[in-house]
Amino acid sequence: MESMIKQLVFEALREAVKTQVHEEVAAQFARQLEDEDFADELEMVVGELAESATQITTKPEPKFKNVFDFVDNFIRPMYPTTKNSQDRANWSKQWYKHKEVGQRLEALWVIYERMRQEDPEGFLEKFLRDHADYHMRQIMADGGVFSYCSASDTPSIPLPVEPEVTKDGMKR
Fold first, then answer.
1. In this record, what's one Pfam family (predicted)?
2. How many CB atoms neighbour CB 91 within 10 A?
3. What is the CA radius of gyration of the chain?
4. What pTM does this model have?
5. Tell me, what's the pLDDT at 171?
């Protein structure tokens, strides 16, 4: 019983002290706010904290709204041909009908947007060197996906496979 009384007294004292300290801190803070220099400094610090919190949580808008926008406004102008050689360029006007190309271009768009957000001033050279040039060589190379598309827009087909017959006679 005695320990219960001690506990109750302790809790009551703690609450009284907490209330007293809270009131004193609030009064001191109110007096500080009357000082214009302090109030201005506090407003500036709070504003900076709010701005940095907003910058951290606000994701920048993408430059291109989708892969089609990216191809039309970045890829095609970045890898041009001359008017005389357009019909010989290894490119398909219907690139989006070629799944393997669509996936590469979608991947390029995603990495472009991510790199642009992470390093707005220096990303382009690295993006072109490490990503775009590599994939565009794969897509447009002689013998590549589009090597027969320029004149007739030939659709691509998957690589052939010979079905394997398993021990139980099933094909896979």
1. DUF4913
2. 21
3. 33
4. 0.57
5. 65
